[in-house]
Amino acid sequence: MAADVPGGATTGLTRAPRLMPVLAKGVLTGFGKHPRPDAALPRTRLVLPAVRIGLGRAATYARVCGYDATEPLPVTYPHILGFPLAARLMSARDFPLPTLGLVHTGIEITQYAPLHPTDTLELTVFAGALRPHRRGTEVVMTTEARRGGALVWHDRSTYLARHRTAGGSGPSGDSAPDSPRAPGPSGDARDLPVRARWRLPADLGRRHAAVSGDYNPIHLHALTARPLGFPRAIAHGMWTFARCAAEAVLPGTATLRISAEFRSPVLLPATVAYAYETTRNGGTFQLRGTPEERARVHLEGRVETDV
């Protein structure tokens, strides 16, 4: 069963919101918001009842994210389908956090059955909880996918609104865009054995935007990233997660849980190292910079197959 299921009204949609207009609205509605973990959280559930994926869309996404095939559906793709709904909730005036500056800090996906590009899915998205973070306030956004009424896929993503806290951390200093390490249960990262090195081109953000709909200017070009605090464009966090998932999840795995904490952004172009270590019921993985590219940990995660 999914966790954090709220009460409240259910709003049915006939089509997915257009992502960029929704994000633009969020910039406007964010003015004057003062995030805090004890704020009231809207209990609205958005439901999109009949989402058809299609072989073409799935194949293009798989190719950009490094999957060998689209069958079964890449485990990360339903997040892409559900994100416009999550953005609509977060851009609402009664949502307590401003969308401008929200940082995706973590994700946990549970797949209960294989999904396929030909499936018709019902998507439900809601805000599950607010919680304090040492750099501000974090919200848990939940996405559920059902097929024939049965829950087959579940995603909990955390997004951080940075602000000054009682501990003295704030939106400057150690929380500058190129320096944060999002806290997670693993604590300080231990280097894992490197299995592959990938050269990421400068246009990777534009390529992923074309298959995800996320045209945030920080991902597109150095000229559009610099005014927002980045020296160059940065890779989408969901691309880094999807690329690692393409390696970490064995073909034919029917049920699994895969999660990650996003540690630091990947400036494009870059060379990164994928590291992986097998565990009793899955494995742990990292995406790291190479020594020549500042060997920081960009992402750290785990995959479990006994769910």
UniProtKB/TrEMBL annotation:
<feature type="region of interest" description="Disordered">
    <location>
        <begin position="163"/>
        <end position="193"/>
    </location>
</feature>
<comment type="similarity">
    <text>Belongs to the enoyl-CoA hydratase/isomerase family.</text>
</comment>
<protein>
    <submittedName>
        <fullName>MaoC/PaaZ C-terminal domain-containing protein</fullName>
    </submittedName>
</protein>
<dbReference type="InterPro" id="IPR029069">
    <property type="entry name" value="HotDog_dom_sf"/>
</dbReference>
<dbReference type="Pfam" id="PF01575">
    <property type="entry name" value="MaoC_dehydratas"/>
</dbReference>
<feature type="compositionally biased region" description="Low complexity">
    <location>
        <begin position="172"/>
        <end position="181"/>
    </location>
</feature>
<feature type="domain" description="MaoC-like">
    <location>
        <begin position="206"/>
        <end position="286"/>
    </location>
</feature>
<dbReference type="InterPro" id="IPR002539">
    <property type="entry name" value="MaoC-like_dom"/>
</dbReference>
